[in-house]
């Protein structure tokens, strides 16, 4: 009996912790308009279709439809984006033997002509963790770079994002995890501010509370940089589930500020 030492590739349902043979998910997102009075919302609808192997084949919202086709290894071999019936963009990717994307070319169309071209070059470590991602425009000029570090469990613990020159730091993000691999704390710092987010989870590993604290960096009259801390915001997250164990409604509130939800997501899940 031969044992396969290679880990099985995750499909899209597994990546997002979705249970069962799902055919489609229609998500209606309702978000509060921060500039308006409480109770005023915007709405966004997105429908995602999956094949029987658990991979996304189509994603549609109010403006764009994305259609994906796969090879026998579960790698995307064709990606096309439409506005109505009009093809507006497409992408091509190259993979290594482990199914990691090494190079991705993205083409934006204007009629029959190519308007913009972008290229992503990705590099991985021996554990198939993405450690560097560089972006180039159609002329081959750098358009940004990100560098990633991981712990021994494969959790991403640091992310460095660089400006167009690939040298000037745009922001730095660090992450800590609980024993189940959930993000416990996230710290993001750029030149103007810093943000700390702390997360709590239920026994299903769903996030049920988010505590956010932000700090602004300002220059005083003496030219020194000072920190101005803003009050912490605590968001509560509540779920409703279907009989399969997938959530069908997610409600986010900030009890200290308003009884109105900050956002609501409702999912209609169709199974095979």
Characterize the structure shown.
It comes from Adhaeribacter aerolatus. This is Type IV secretion protein Rhs. This protein is mainly β. 1% of the residues lie in helices and 61% in strands. It has an 18-stranded antiparallel beta barrel. A hairpin with a 2-residue loop joins strand 5 (76-83) and strand 6. The longest helix has 4 residues, at 12-15.
Gross morphology is globular
Give the integer mean of the pLDDT values. Answer: 90
SSE string: HEEEEEEEEEEEEEEEEEEE
Tell me the span between the first and last alpha carbons: 33 Å
Secondary-structure-based class equals: mainly beta
Beta strand count: 19
Give the low-pLDDT segments.
1-6
Please tally the helical runs, counting DSSP H or I stretches of 4 or more residues: 1
Specify the helix fraction band: under 10%
**Rg (CA only):** 21 Å
Strand content: over 45%
Largest sheet: 18 strands, antiparallel, barrel
